[in-house]
Amino acid sequence: MNKKKIAFAAAAAALALGATGGSIAFADPAGSPQYRQLSGVGSDTTQDVMNGLAAAITVNGQKVIGSYDATGSANITTKDPAANPNCTLARPNGSGAGRSALLTSLQANNGCLDFARSSSLNLAAAAPGLTYVPFAVDGVSYAITPGSAIPRKLSLTDLKAIYHCDPNYVGAGPNYDMTVYLPQAGSGTRSFWESQMGITDADVVAGVYPCIKDKKGSAPVQEHDGRVLDDKSIVPFSIAQYQSQSSQTIADLRGRAILGTVDGLAPTVLNSGFGVKRDVYNVIPTGKVATAPWSTVFVGANSEICKQAAVINTYGFATNPNCGDTTKQTP
């Protein structure tokens, strides 16, 4: 990272911390009001930056975003039970689960969920229709431990061979004797990484790639939790998550994990130049694109979220030149 980027990252962090009054790590909606106009669930990758944005953004003096973490208590309550007694639901973990929960709420017309967080794009048909609104850019690298024999520098071609269980890489000797992990089912990072590796989730589930595991013992591999790693394992890891854990902006779950270099490009805080990168999204009902508060908070370059570049950078994400775009809609 050059000096200008380091200076920019530091300035962004200072601005965001000042705007939100110090530490900005939260779990589920923090502060008043307890229940918000816009309740959302889903992606582990973007839960923390959305919590930071929820703290920073107000409309008419009121916080309006209620973002519920991917993990925590078994159930969450998203709306005031006095007004809506049916909004206690199982906590959705991951982009896919968040999308499903949002659709369930919209189909029931119960008002319990208003958006979903997603770290991957899924334009499969949905009823009612959904719009994927980008707001930041993340990079994804691989994580290993400092004691691992797995190289700290790999090409994308090498990674594809590893995730195809190529015997010349996996189990062929001490340099490549490894456990190959993917995050839990429904994870946006899982689906994104599969797309980059040229594999499908259906084939992974069917056991076409026998070296790939998404559990350690009986426990699902939670994305961006480096504690799953030992000296013979590898797992994809969000660069934004890694950097914000490293800076103590959010809870540090890295364990001994370190990030690898891909195709000669090292993972950095402002990672829009990294080779393996993705847009991250908030998913809203297409029918609400022009309706406040969805339009005020999510839609367009001047939306409340898109104006919060300092907060977005503090959580390790790069700003997105297409922030607020509404062209990515499900049929």
Automatic annotation (TrEMBL):
Residues making up the signal peptide according to the UniProt record: 1-27
Keyword terms of this UniProt record: Signal
UniProt xrefs under SUPFAM superfamilies: Periplasmic binding protein-like II
Protein name according to UniProt: PBP domain-containing protein
Source organism per UniProt: Streptomyces nojiriensis
